[in-house]
Write a structure and sequence with these properties.
There is one protein chain. The chain folds into 2 domains: 6-268, P-loop containing nucleotide triphosphate hydrolases (Rossmann fold, 3-Layer(aba) Sandwich); 277-529, Class I glutamine amidotransferase (GATase) domain (Rossmann fold, 3-Layer(aba) Sandwich). The strands form 6 sheets. A 9-stranded mixed sheet has the order 12-9-13-14-22-21-20-17-18, sandwiched between helices. The chain has a 3-stranded parallel sheet with strand order 4-1-5, with helices on both faces. It has a 3-stranded parallel sheet with strand order 6-7-8, sandwiched between helices. The chain is α/β, with parallel strands linked by helices and 534 residues long.
Length: 534
């Protein structure tokens, strides 16, 4: 089923294979017809992750980057929409030589071609390909067919790993293997026999269950890997290695480890810090993409959450994250006092005007009450709106995203206005990596320790340069500028006036890694740790 951790399993396998000295790449295949993830609702799909080259993709690409400690590209991401789009374009260009173009074999062949293209471009020795969704889903059949054909073409160079859930019904108290047996049968129907089964469950897989899976699913007992729930996803690679998973995979390829495992030593230290925090830090996230019925969905902000964790682990503290609905502050301003319970507040990115005024009120409260505040993308824009209204006396200040009848301190740049008029929404924002020149003597410059940086973007609206002089004259420091286009990238209030009041137009969370936390998140957590609650 979905949501059991295929992405983390893939990323963890990549981590342990990379630690053996191999050049590893990961590819995510998503079954939806969307060309990319850019137009999807984050509540339904989860976070839209962005790579350096501006690809809007599934959040699992973020997991791969974090675990592999390397940047990926559009070549690491594939959807049904991309495949069909490419095949149809080739047909239109007569690249099939007048043949009748068919779903099989041409669609699976396109998938195989994309995998081989990734190998050629990156010189990868091992490529992990995650097929999203569930084994029995109709839309996955063509990807499973591609996998079957790839194995047929390269019998000694393809290993199949099935990630399957073993439920433990509460009223029984016994782990059940029948769903996994059925999943393997479904794979067999598609012509695929898994070589390794990762058995996800609430608890560790016991020997009777392991033997049953081995017998009924036609795999060696040593190839049944227990993957119980853990407190931190960063424990998963170590859990796999304790059971010799990397050796099982390498032996099937006829490969031997190239190096002693130096990187896993750092990984073990990371997990030690996670398990042995010196204290806690209370962080509130003021957002709106996490409520779905009676459930709180964290996937909408997964990179933000992980970036907070990375920075907290660096300082050997445990982050306690609380979700704060911004709409409540609009209907009940007295509720803003709850912000005093936190040592730091984050206002993340987003789209649409729901809850916006509540976010602005939260920003004002944090500025006045000296609560560390970190604004991300939309967060920066709303910090500028709040500062314009309350410090610069521009009472009608707002973003043109939310109102046309306002002082547009945040507005579309000309090229974005044209795209919006033409109703071109997909892959048309300012996307991917852009340079940022940092100003000397600022918190941003101190955090990075260098003058020129590169960060990833995903937005249409920018700080209106017509208001820059006013903002700066009233005390808002513009500490980061994109030099090529003279666009505002970072704003802050000086450290002499506030412990941490900084916003970035880019998304720093996309480049944070567990072994190398993002500099701005590190400084934000350091400032938060100096704060007393209440």
């Amino acid at each position: 089923m979905s949501g059991i951790g295929k992405g983390i399993a893939t990323a963890s396998i990549g981590r342990i294979l990379k630690s053996k000295g191999f050049r590893v790449e990961s590819m995510k295949i998503d079954p939806y017809v969307n060309v990319d993830a850019g137009t999807m609702n984050p509540i339904e799909h989860g976070e839209v992750f962005v790579t350096d080259d501006g690809t809007e993709c599934d959040q699992d690409i973020g997991n791969y980057e974090r675990f592999l400690e390397q940047s990926l590209s559009t070549d690491n991401y594939l959807t049904t929409g991309r495949v069909y789009q490419a095949v149809i374009q080739r047909e239109r260009n007569l690249e099939y030589g007048g043949k009748c173009v068919e779903v099989v074999p041409h669609i699976p062949e396109e998938v195989i071609g994309r995998i081989k293209n990734l190998e050629q471009k990156t010189k990868a020795e091992i490529i992990l390909v995650e097929i999203g969704g569930t084994v029995g889903e109709y839309q996955n059949l063509l990807f499973l067919e591609a996998a079957r054909m790839l194995r047929l073409q390269n019998p000694n160079s393809v290993v199949f790993v099935l990630v399957s859930y073993l439920p433990t019904p509460q009223h029984l108290g016994e782990m059940k293997s029948k769903p996994t047996q059925y999943a393997v049968r479904s794979l067999n129907i598609a012509g695929i026999q898994p070589d390794i089964i990762i058995a996800r469950g609430s608890s560790t897989l016991d020997e009777p269950r392991k033997k049953k899976i081995s017998v009924f699913c036609n795999v060696n007992e040593k190839d049944v890997i227990s993957s119980p729930d853990v407190n931190s996803i960063y424990e998963v690679p170590l859990t796999y290695e304790e059971q010799g998973l990397s050796q099982r995979i390498l032996s099937r390829f006829g490969l031997k480890a190239k190096t002693t495992d130096m990187t896993m030593t750092a990984w073990k230290k990371l997990v030690y810090n996670i398990k042995n925090p010196k204290k806690e830090v209370q962080i509130g996230i003021v957002g709106k993409y996490f409520q779905s019925g009676n459930f709180t969905l964290m996937d909408s902000y997964i990179s933000v959450i992980e970036a907070i964790k990375h920075a907290a682990y660096f300082w050997q503290v445990k982050p306690v994250i609380t979700w704060l609905g911004s709409e409540a502050y609009e209907s009940n301003p007295k509720q803003l006092k709850e912000l005093n319970n936190f040592q730091g507040i984050i206002v993340p990115g987003g789209f649409g005007n729901r809850g916006i005024e509540g976010k602005i009120k939260a920003i004002e409260y944090c500025r006045k009450n000296k609560i560390p505040l970190f604004g991300l993308c939309l967060g920066l824009q709303l910090m500028v709106v709040e500062f314009s209204r309350n410090i610069c006396s521009v009472k009608a200040a707002n973003s043109s995203e939310f109102s046309n009848n306002c002082q547009k301190v945040i507005d579309l740049i000309p090229e974005q206005k044209r795209l919006m008029q033409e109703k071109r929404y997909g892959a048309t924002m300012r996307l991917g990596a852009y340079n940022c020149q940092l100003k000397q003597g600022t918190a941003a410059k101190q955090a990075y320790g260098q003058s020129m940086i590169s960060e990833r973007h995903r937005h249409r609206y920018e700080v209106n340069n017509d208001f820059r002089n006013l903002l700066q004259n009233r005390g808002l420091v513009i500490s980061g500028i994109n030099p090529e286009r003279d666009l505002v990238e970072i704003v802050e209030v000086p450290a002499s006036q506030h412990p941490f009041f900084l916003g970035s137009q880019f998304h720093p969370e996309f480049k944070s890694r567990p072994l190398s936390p993002h500099p701005l998140f590190k400084e934000f957590i350091r400032a938060a740790l100096k704060q007393k609650r209440g």
